[in-house]
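Problem: given the chain below (292 residues), write out its structure.
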Amino acid sequence: MNQIYIAIIFGVVCMIGWGVTDIFNKNVIDKIGSYKTSVYINGLATIMSFPILLIDWSFPKLTFLNIIYLLIFSFLDFLGFYFLYKAYQLGKVSILNPITSSYAILTSFLSYIFFAENFPPLKIAAVFVTIIGILLTSVNINDLKDGLQTKDLVKGVPQAIIVFCIYGTILPFWDRYLDQEGWIWISILARFLTFIFTLIFATVIKKQSIQIPSKGLMKPLFWGALFISIGNWGFNLGLKYTNQTSIIAVLASAYPLVLLICAYIFLKERIATNQYFGIFLIVAGIVITSYI
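Solution.
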C-alpha cells in the first residue's frame, strides 16, 4: 500500500483515539484530579500495550546510550502531560487549544530541517489547510465573545507554549529512535517510564495517595486507557511503517475535531460557525493528502 495512505490511516486512528479518550478522562479528572488520572491512565495503557508484541516480539539492545534516550523521551512525555493539564487548569481552553494542538507545525519544520522529509507543493498545501482547520476547530468563537478579559489571554499560555515545544520537538526524533530492532518493546518501556515519572510526581511531590479506583471510575478509566493506547499505537505504527512524519503528526493533532463531534453528539453542545469551517478544512486537508 502507498505510504501516504498508510500515514493517513494511522494518523486518523491516532486522531480518533486521542480525541475519544479526552471524553472519558474529563469525567475522571473532575472527580479525582489530573495527576491521579494520569497515573491510572498511563499504568493501564502500559498493560494494554502488550498484545501489540504479537507483531514483533524482538527485544531491543539496551545499551547505555539507548537507555538514556529512552529516559529522556519518557521524561519529556511526562512533562508534556504535566504542562498540558497545568495550562488547562490556569486558562481558557478556547485560548490554549490552538497552541497545544498546533505542535505539528514545529514537527514538520524539524522533520524538513534535520531529516530532509520531502515536502512537495501538494503536501505543503495539505499540511497548511489541515493546521488552519485544527486552529479553527479548537476555538469556539462564542467563548471568546462572552466575558473574555485581557488577563484571560495570558493565563496558561506559557505552559501551552511549553507543550507546543516539547511535543513539536521530540516527535521527529522519536520517529527516528523507533527505527531499530525491538521498537515495540521500546514503545512499551517508554509508556511504563512515563507512568513511573507520573507516579513519583503524584505521590512524592504532590503527596497524593494512589489507591485502587472505585468501581464507578474503573469503567471510564478503562475506556480512556484503551483509546489512548489505540491513539498511541496508531501514531507509532504510522511512524514505523512510513517516512511521512509530518502527515501523521498533523492528522494526530486534529484530535479536537473528534472531541468536538463527540461533544455535539453526546453532550448536545453547539458547534460555532468557525468550527464548521474548521471541520471542512480538516477533511479537505485529508483529501488533498490522498492525492500526494
